[in-house]
Specification:
hydrolase; 216 residues; nuclease; Ig-like_fold
Length: 216
């Protein structure tokens, strides 16, 4: 397996390849990931057979990371052994591969005046500092992975304090709106866990989490 990257301005053309001896069968394989919202019925992401290998090129925006997996028509899901990294998926015990383009800078027009450039840099630094101060590591809450943490943060629950005040019903609505990959999760214990984390009661949180199964 291999990931070939060709930078093209603010995008990178990523070519995904599954060699003949790496495919689980000779059936069709579809490439699924964040870049196509994991839509299994999207035929445009079916990989092209070249000899015994499977190949698909996708144009992705730089400065981001994308989770992905392969889906064999008759053998189910499998990972790319040459992915840049692996992160937990919303499903227990299953990891997704990662295409990491976060280190590839997006090309922007240079600021002509040095003073203006300095002002922009200062504004960006302040914004990042404030943003960082307003977020907690929600992954410390059992049942919350990186993707769900990002979704909750986007919806205004990026801190333990905010999450502790959320109703279970509102959290269920957020997960349902995010799609079937997330609606299967049960957030019933998340506010209680978050309350302990917000108050720094890590020992009590650990005791509670020992009694939970995937956050339930």
């Amino acid at each position: 397996m291999a990931l070939k990257k060709e930078v093209k301005g603010k995008y990178t053309l990523v070519t995904f390849t599954v060699a003949e001896n790496e495919a689980p069968s000779t059936s069709n394989v579809i490439l699924l990931g964040d870049f196509n919202n994991w839509q299994t019925n999207d035929s445009s992401f079916q990989m092209e057979k070249k000899g015994g290998s499977y190949v698909k090129s996708v144009k992705l925006e730089n400065g981001k990371s994308y989770e992905f997996r392969y889906l064999s028509e008759d053998k189910g899901w499998f990972n790319d052994h040459a992915a840049d990294a692996y992160v937990p998926s919303p499903y227990f015990g299953i990891d997704n591969g990662v295409v990491d383009l976060s280190a590839v800078p997006e090309k922007k027009k240079p600021v002509k005046k040095a003073v203006a450039k300095k002002a922009v840099a200062k504004k960006t630094t302040v914004k990042k500092t404030v943003s960082k101060a307003k977020k907690d590591d929600l992954k410390k809450i059992e049942g919350i992975g990186p993707k769900i943490a990002a979704i909750l943060t986007e919806k205004g629950y990026g801190t333990f304090s905010a999450l502790s005040k959320a109703s279970v019903k509102s959290l269920e609505s957020i997960l349902k709106a995010a799609g079937p990959r997330y609606s299967m999760h049960k957030p019933g214990s998340w506010p209680k866990q978050a309350k302990l984390a917000a108050s720094g009661d890590w020992d009590k949180l650990k005791t509670l989490q020992d009694k939970l199964d995937g956050g339930k």
